[in-house]
Amino acid sequence: xxxxxxxxxxxxxxxxxxxxxxxxxxxxxxxxxxxxxxxxxxxxxxxxxxxxxxxxxxxxxxxxxxxxxxxxxxxxxxxxxxxxxxxxxxxxxxxxxxxxxxxxxxxxxxxxxxxxxxxxxxxxxxxxxxxxxxxxxxxxxxxxxxxxxxxxxxxxxxxxxxxxxx
Length: 166
Hints:
A hairpin with a 2-residue loop joins strand 2 (about 100-105) and strand 3 (about 110-115). The protein is about 55% helix and about 10% strand. The chain has a single domain (about 25-145), classed as Winged helix-like DNA-binding domain superfamily/Winged helix DNA-binding domain (Arc Repressor Mutant, subunit A, Orthogonal Bundle), CATH 1.10.10. With about 170 residues, it is mostly helical.
């Protein structure tokens, strides 16, 4: 009985010549996790130093800053961050105590809570955004090894054209 030919690119094939158990989708996911971990390591101390809040509280502020001006419902924040609602309640209470967010009853649903940024939070985020963005860029650019993060690097904005044609 003749051996059947091997497929040209079997699942888990490593293009560098080595064998791997992971298909490309899982390798990409692992690269995403590596990038996320590197970014968190860079941001955690910087967020604490510049904003005096935890990394998880910072994620809440980022969602609110990138969302509608009216804010987001607590359930939306919990879903987008993949966090339990009980943990989010604590984070929101800390942010409210710091004067960075407001909590109000959601329009049309007295059981729902709407959370929005305060002017103080907007000012702090605006002041800290350049250094925080720089930390994200440094973290992603510093990734190397088995997790190819070219996709993550491609998501980073390119330096703005200065307009000088020299």
